[in-house]
UniProtKB/TrEMBL annotation:
InterPro entries: Dimeric_a/b-barrel, YCII. It comes from Blastococcus jejuensis. Belongs to the YciI family. This is YciI family protein. Coiled coil: none annotated.
Length: 141
């Protein structure tokens, strides 16, 4: 099972305060532990919302672009991991080892093909497989 681990933003991350060398080293050691265990698929930090944008769609599919920053810091994301583990309990145990002091991390299971049932036809599955292969070829993944 794949899980997205969502690191919530703080006033510091939204103000562009970068981690110290010691914090980067601590996070690097944690990431290395995840990689050595074979559970880390991806992980990145994000720039503050002041450098971002949102695209809002109305019921007719028209879109509006809203430039950051965004007001509700507690609702924003500062970074993420994608972990592949055998259970929700396992991902929780990994996250509990993260080198954070304060803040909050959200854990969400990533949908798989089986979650979509009959709506995910063989043709759609073939298309998805083809797109994933193309992305891997393009980015050396």
């Amino acid at each position: 099972m794949r899980y997205m681990v969502i690191v919530k933003a703080s006033q510091d991350t939204e103000n562009g305060v970068m981690p110290t060398e010691a914090e980067l080293a601590e996070m690097g050691a944690y990431n290395e532990e995840l990689v050595k265990a074979g559970v880390m698929l991806a992980g990145e930090g994000l720039h503050p919302s002041s450098k971002g944008a949102r695209v809002r769609f109305d019921e007719n599919g028209r879109s509006t672009v809203i430039d950051g920053p965004f007001a509700e810091t507690k609702e924003l994301v500062a970074g993420f991991w994608i972990l592949e583990v055998s259970s929700r309990e396992e991902v929780v145990e990994w996250v509990r080892k993260a080198p954070f002091r304060g803040g909050e991390v959200e854990i969400r299971q990533v949908s798989s093909a089986e979650d979509f049932g009959d709506a995910y036809t063989p043709e759609l599955r073939e298309q998805e497989d083809r797109l994933r292969a193309t992305v891997e070829a393009q980015h050396g993944g």
